[in-house]
Amino acid sequence: MIKGVLAVLAASVAYGIMPVFSKTAMAQGMNAESVVFFRFLFSSAFALLFLIKRSNRRYVTRRQLWHLLVFGILGFGMTINLLTFSYQYIPTGLATMFHFAYPLVILAVMAVLYHEKITRYKVAAVAVALAGVALLADFSQGLALPGVLLALGSAVTYAAFVIAGRKSSFAILPPMEVIFFVSAFSTLIFGAKSLLLGQLQAPPNGTAFVCLIIISVVCTIFALAMLTYGIRTLGASTASVLNMLEPVVSVVAGVLAFAEPLNIRTMAGCAAIIAASILIVLGERSAQRADLKQ
C-alpha cells in the first residue's frame, strides 16, 4: 500500500508545480493553447523514445486502442480543454475547486456500477478535502454559470479517465504505453485546434523551451506514470482523494516562485486537505488490518 500512496503523492507534487512552469512559459510570450500542444507533443515524443528502447513492448489490441482513443481525448484531453475554457469565466481557484469534485464522481460511480464499498474514512476524507479546496478558492469575483458548468464538466471527464485507468481494457498495459497513446491523441486534437484558430506558437526562447520540457517530462509523463501506478495499487477512489493534495502543492509553489500572498484562510485550506490525505491513508491501513483478521 505504501508504494501506491507515495506514487500518488509524487503525482500530486508533479501536477502541482505545473502552473509555475506554465505561467513562466506564457510570461515569455506563449499562449495557453501552444503550451498545452507542446506539452503533449513533447510527452508523446519522450514516451515513444522510451518504448523504442524497451525490448519487452506489448501488443496493443484494437479494443485497447479504441479505449485509449476515447478516454485519451474525451477523458484526459477534454479535461484540460474544459478547464482552460472555464478560466475565461471564473478565477482559476474557483475552477480548481469545482474540478476537484471529481473524487465524488468517482466514489459514486465505483459504488453504483462496480459495487465498491465506500468506507466512512473515504466519505470523511472527501468532505474535509472539499472544504479545504473551498477555503483556497476566491469567491470575491462571483460565480459565472458557464464557468461553473465547464469546471464541473472537467470533473466528470477526469473521473472517467481515472476510472478507465483501473477498469478499462488498457488497465493492464504498462503505464508508458498508456501515456504515449493518450499524449499522441491529445497532440493531434490540440494541434488541430491551435492551427484552426491560428494560435500555434513556437517556443520564443530557451526559457520557454526548458519550461515546456519540464512540463512534459515531470508534470505529464512522470505524473501520469505515478498516478496510474497509484490507481492500480490503491483503487480509483482512494487515489483520487490522495491526489487532492495537488492544489496544496500549487499554493506552496506559487508562494515560493512568485511570492503569492499566503493568509490564514489559505493555510487552513491546505491543512484541511492534508488532514484528508491522512484520513484516507488511515482508512486504507484499517481496511488492510481488517482483511488480515478475516
From TrEMBL:
<keyword id="KW-1133">Transmembrane helix</keyword>
<feature type="domain" description="EamA">
    <location>
        <begin position="146"/>
        <end position="281"/>
    </location>
</feature>
<feature type="transmembrane region" description="Helical">
    <location>
        <begin position="207"/>
        <end position="229"/>
    </location>
</feature>
<feature type="transmembrane region" description="Helical">
    <location>
        <begin position="37"/>
        <end position="53"/>
    </location>
</feature>
<feature type="transmembrane region" description="Helical">
    <location>
        <begin position="121"/>
        <end position="137"/>
    </location>
</feature>
<dbReference type="InterPro" id="IPR037185">
    <property type="entry name" value="EmrE-like"/>
</dbReference>
<dbReference type="InterPro" id="IPR000620">
    <property type="entry name" value="EamA_dom"/>
</dbReference>
<feature type="transmembrane region" description="Helical">
    <location>
        <begin position="143"/>
        <end position="164"/>
    </location>
</feature>
<feature type="transmembrane region" description="Helical">
    <location>
        <begin position="264"/>
        <end position="283"/>
    </location>
</feature>
<feature type="transmembrane region" description="Helical">
    <location>
        <begin position="241"/>
        <end position="258"/>
    </location>
</feature>
<comment type="similarity">
    <text>Belongs to the EamA transporter family.</text>
</comment>
<feature type="transmembrane region" description="Helical">
    <location>
        <begin position="65"/>
        <end position="90"/>
    </location>
</feature>
<protein>
    <submittedName>
        <fullName>DMT family transporter</fullName>
    </submittedName>
</protein>
<keyword id="KW-0812">Transmembrane</keyword>
<feature type="transmembrane region" description="Helical">
    <location>
        <begin position="96"/>
        <end position="114"/>
    </location>
</feature>
<feature type="transmembrane region" description="Helical">
    <location>
        <begin position="176"/>
        <end position="195"/>
    </location>
</feature>
<keyword id="KW-0472">Membrane</keyword>
<feature type="domain" description="EamA">
    <location>
        <begin position="3"/>
        <end position="136"/>
    </location>
</feature>
<dbReference type="Pfam" id="PF00892">
    <property type="entry name" value="EamA"/>
</dbReference>
